[in-house]
Amino acid sequence: MVNAASMLLAIRNVTVSFPGFRHHVFRKSADNDRLTAVRNVSLSLGKGVTIGLVGESGCGKTTLGRAVVGLQPVDSGSILFERKELSHLSGTELRTARKRIQMIFQNPFASLNPRITVFDAVAEALETTGGYRRNDFRDRVAFHLEQVGLDGTMMRKFPHEFSGGQRQRIAIARALAAEPAVIIADEPVSSLDVSVAAQILNLLHEIRDRLGLTMLFISHDLSVVRFIAHTIAVMYRGSIVEYGPADTVFSSPLHPYTALLLRSVPVLNAEPGATPFFETVPLRENAAGGSTGCPFASRCEYTQERCRETEPVLLPQGPTPERQCACFRAGEISL
Question: What's the pTM?
Fold first, then answer.
């Protein structure tokens, strides 16, 4: 549980939905004709803390991240930054808050404007901070590029002249130029080669620790999240189903879905005389399910009748509130 004094970003009971399949451009979707991507999610991020938000594709991770930075409106709930509700801010106050919450996107090829130079991309972020004269921009852009391991002389080049890893470094430099307190990293290494991804992860780890940044790190790859996150929040079909310290979640998962994700991580078989290979446990197709009961009931081997009838809520498991799980059988079964 995050101490109130160190609370930087608080997501409280946030729900986000989209128009359903029967939506028409000339009429508003009915309430029962909407797809709910995020359902009543609450997370608290303290200063310098990284929460890893994990789950399979389509579970609502990216939607939540976009809602935090204001790219996606929320249906209900609140997002507080430094104990101020973002939806209640306007004008200068809102611009100040927004610049301090920056997002690093998944695709570095799409997140940079191909028509402008690296200098202009980073200088745009500098303009939002204020306090710098235009004459100082060149030195500041060079400084931020060097922060992410690039040569400052590259600033006059265009994005197409860089590799994928270099583009992601530029995207990180652009985010840092706004002098943020919070970084939302949305699958920042999923489109990169393994060796390049490792370099970017090391860079994010070093920058976070050196600048004391708070980070919401979104990923479907548990091995990546384990490297960088202090706390893990597991999301399934728009809801948080497990939450706790990273080491504890990985060593002793409470929710069957978390255990399934962990078993799905590639593991090298190094038995004597065996040919090394990566073995994964495939996830079964996500059934549509009904409107009642546990959303994971149709895929869970531990399902009971009450699981199909009532949806469990996220509750503390054990003596401290840091460990939470949304499962009726969290304390009964050994995963």
Answer: 0.87
